[in-house]
Design goal:
Blueprint (H helix, E strand, L loop, with lengths): L8 H4 L4 H29 L2 H24 L9 H18 L5 H23 L4 H21 L1 H4 L5 E2 L5 E3 L3 E3 L3 H24 L1 H11 L1 H7 L3 H27 L1 E2 L6 H14 L5 H30 L13 H14 L3 H11 L1
Antiparallel strand pairs: 1-4, 2-3
Length: 354
């Protein structure tokens, strides 16, 4: 009689792929809901300064996500995001100055059109190049726009930039609401959360799969028959559009547009956010932006505080209060690159799976 053996327990316990995906989905959406709830509650429980900082982190997180479309999903490092972000700011600022009363939705449309137009212009020329040549070309374009904005004083205000009054959140015939710290935070949160969900859908679509194929092997993707240049152009335009949206939000929060935000440093910081958090994840760049901005805020306060404590105890530590906090911040960034090459999010995922 043939003996029927049961499968080993470890094989029986293995979940099916569909069940595993469902479980991961439940964990993901539960985490998303918890984080969203915490962010909704932020202006209710935090002091005004920290609530404003949380809003700013959300805006820079959107910049980081927009950059991740190119860096993480298409394999193209862009230093042109300062132009997209800055033109979004200036487009919104000019619309708000030109209209009476200032119109939020017109400013939003103007900023997006300005950013998308610049992104299309840059993409047409830059996407013909690869690797370092693409990065350098986007850097050159961003600096060209910086010089134009800095010198075209009649239109942009030059080095003084543009200032304006904050528009109300209004729907004609329904309501008009003046922005407070809390309501502005919730508006920004809604825009950023919606942008994240839309970008997540895009990166998981067939279009997003082609972008990842370009990242892995551009020649093979071209050989299969995909118009690689067209996909790259659309990717740059999507990336620029969301960076411009972040620029509009930043302009509304701070009620000004300045040429400093078109300088290439903004693009460099967006790359840093991606590397710190983890590229190709969308969430990772937001984590990187939050970590970078909170570290910068904390370190900028740390050394003056230590100097004050030392002086209270009769210790003279000359130069401590003015110590350049960017040095320890840079050391932390280098440590993350060396010891956490997949970023903070990748490191956290690996530890949780152990």
């Amino acid at each position: 009689m043939t003996e029927v053996r049961s499968a080993p327990p470890e094989l029986v316990a293995l979940p099916r792929p569909a069940a595993l995906r469902a479980r991961h989905g439940r964990v993901y959406w539960s985490g998303f809901a918890i984080v969203l709830a915490l962010l909704v509650a932020a202006p209710l429980v935090l002091p005004e300064y920290w609530a404003r900082l949380t809003t700013e982190i959300l805006i820079w997180g959107l910049v980081a996500m927009s950059s991740d479309i190119l860096i993480g999903y298409t394999g193209m490092v862009s230093f042109g995001h300062s132009a997209f972000f800055g033109l979004g700011m200036y487009g919104a600022a000019m619309a708000l100055i030109a209209t009476r009363p200032p119109n939020l939705w017109l400013a939003l449309i103007a900023g997006l059109i300005a950013a998308a137009a610049v992104a299309a212009f840059v993409a047409y020329f830059a996407t013909r190049l690869r690797d370092i040549y693409f990065a350098i070309t986007t850097l050159i374009f961003s600096q060209i726009f910086y010089v134009v904005i800095f010198t075209w004083t009649e239109l942009t205000g030059g080095e003084n930039g543009l200032t304006f009054s904050r528009p109300p959140l209004a729907i004609p015939g329904l309501f008009s609401l003046r922005f407070t710290t809390g309501s502005l935070h919730w508006f920004v949160l809604a825009v950023v959360a919606g942008s994240y969900l839309l970008l997540r859908r895009i990166t998981r679509s067939p279009f997003g799969m082609v972008l990842q194929s370009i990242r892995e092997n551009e020649a093979r993707t071209r050989a299969i028959g995909y118009p690689v240049e067209r996909y790259k152009i659309v990717a740059v335009m999507f990336s620029g559009l969301f960076a411009g949206l972040a620029g509009v939000l930043y302009a509304i929060q701070n009620r000004f547009a300045a040429p400093d935000f078109v300088f290439f440093v903004v693009s460099g910081e967006a790359v840093i956010y991606n590397i710190m958090g983890g590229v190709g994840t969308l969430v990772g760049p937001i984590v990187g932006a939050a970590a970078f901005l909170l570290l910068r805020e904390g370190l900028s306060r740390l050394f003056p505080y230590l100097a004050s404590v030392a002086s209270q105890h009769g210790l003279a530590l000359p130069g401590l209060a003015e110590f350049p906090y960017l040095i320890p911040l840079g050391i932390i960034f280098i440590a993350i690159v060396i010891f956490m090459p997949q970023g903070l999010l990748g490191f956290a995922r690996r530890r949780l799976n152990e």
